């Protein structure tokens, strides 16, 4: 699947719930967000049909996201169904890690290929400030348990902000020193409450880590489906990655699209426009119209976002990442 900018699109992130058991301050506003009704959420059968259509178009890497995807009933059964689809390449999961330890055995049986665990700090007090929960130990136990499965690709997703100091960044990177963990620093997206926070830039983190650990050497190897680029540090088993949508805009190499939990296809986070796939799914039992609509929408994928522009036209406004699918 190629869009009109001749980018190969082979990766889709599918949100399976808008519910989350954390309230991260840059994701959920103080007043909360209105939860979707159960009938508005895509069913397992509808998600499988979507996956079949994406695969037929050459999009065979699927990330299951939320909210917190482990809050969806029998999400492991859904992942197992997706893994069985002919043509699928990789199925991975993004989770906050709070419930991951108890789900890991079933996720492994389902055939999951990789897990991204969202974790911004190793400081318990700062963790509580960010998430409004005292769950850091549970997350760290989940990380340790996930690493016990040698075939499983395990990454940490860290969104650094002014809530964290230099020690937090240094300590997060150190997780990659003695284990095969890849630690990725992700720039804060100016979406919903995220607009109110200042992110650490990639260049600032690079300077801090090089001062602490020595030279970061850019690697040519890709360690996932998305736009991250990775560095090795002498003496580190894992890698340090960066996803820097603002300071190092990667739109020219973007290979992904998103499906929200209520079935909207988003080809770019910046724009409000989306395609209502749920409506198509529920109007027809066949996949021809669905595939044609997906193809056309992806073909028309915008060339790039305009988050750094003063022009607010088309911007998604106050929609939160939990509503879109992180």
UniProtKB/TrEMBL annotation:
One of its GO terms (biological process) is Mo-molybdopterin cofactor biosynthetic process. Keywords: 4Fe-4S, GTP-binding, Iron, Iron-sulfur, Lyase, Metal-binding, Molybdenum cofactor biosynthesis, Nucleotide-binding, S-adenosyl-L-methionine. InterPro entries: Aldolase_TIM, Elp3/MiaA/NifB-like_rSAM, MoaA, MoaA-like, MoaA_NifB_PqqE_Fe-S-bd_CS, MoaA_twitch, MoCo_biosynth_MoaA/MoaC, rSAM. This is GTP 3',8-cyclase. CDD domains: Radical_SAM, Twitch_MoaA. The keyword Iron-sulfur applies. Residues 4-228 form the Radical SAM core domain. It is an enzyme of class 4 (lyase). SUPFAM superfamilies: Radical SAM enzymes. The keyword Iron applies. Its EC number is 4.1.99.22. It comes from Aminipila terrae. Its cofactor is [4Fe-4S] cluster. GO terms for molecular function: 4 iron, 4 sulfur cluster binding; cyclic pyranopterin monophosphate synthase activity; GTP 3',8'-cyclase activity; GTP binding; metal ion binding. NCBIfam families: moaA (TIGR02666). Coiled coil: none annotated. The gene is moaA. It holds the Pfam family Mob_synth_C. It catalyses: GTP + AH2 + S-adenosyl-L-methionine = (8S)-3',8-cyclo-7,8-dihydroguanosine 5'-triphosphate + 5'-deoxyadenosine + L-methionine + A + H(+). It comes from the Bacteria.
